[in-house]
Design brief:
Blueprint lengths: L5 H17 L10 E10 L12 E5 L1 H18 L2 E9 L3 E9 L5 E11 L2 E9 L8
Parallel strand pairs: 1-6
Antiparallel strand pairs: 1-2, 3-4, 4-5, 5-6
Length: 136
């Protein structure tokens, strides 16, 4: 089993996954996702009737790409972008902190967990990262 380092995981997430989504290229996500990926996604940015109460669970690279082909055009209209801020890995799994960024600069933070096989993401799970007001 080949272990990946932090830089490779960052590249899988930011360059191969999120940048392809942000640039309206859902098929480019093939570079990041294992053919047997399990993809668990909680909606971070509310748009087009989708909100944080939705959790999509898909299995297989084709299912994920087909889903993204429908969803990415909606994200293009919203004008949102994804930015990975921090990545940690032990070589076979990892976590990341990221933001969805709106046109006006609004940030919506989220957390992700991934597992790796054959240097691709085989498990992808995203959860909202709630922030609470400062204590008074």
């Amino acid at each position: 089993m080949t272990l990946i380092n932090r830089e490779k995981l960052f590249s899988l997430l930011q360059n191969d996954y999120f940048d392809n989504i942000d640039n309206n290229n859902p098929e480019g996500v093939y570079a990041a996702m294992h053919e047997n990926v399990k993809w668990i996604h909680t909606q971070v940015w509310e748009h087009d009737g989708h909100d944080g109460s939705e959790v999509d669970v898909l299995t297989g690279q084709k299912s994920v790409i087909d889903f993204l082909k429908r969803r990415v055009p909606e994200m293009q209209i919203e004008g949102i972008k994804h930015k990975v801020d921090k990545v940690l890995t032990d070589g076979k799994s990892g976590s990341f902190l990221a933001n969805v960024i709106g046109r006006d600069g609004t940030l919506k933070p989220f957390f992700g967990w991934v597992e790796i096989a054959d240097e691709k993401i085989i498990l992808y799970r995203v959860c909202l990262l709630y922030t609470s007001p400062s204590p008074r």
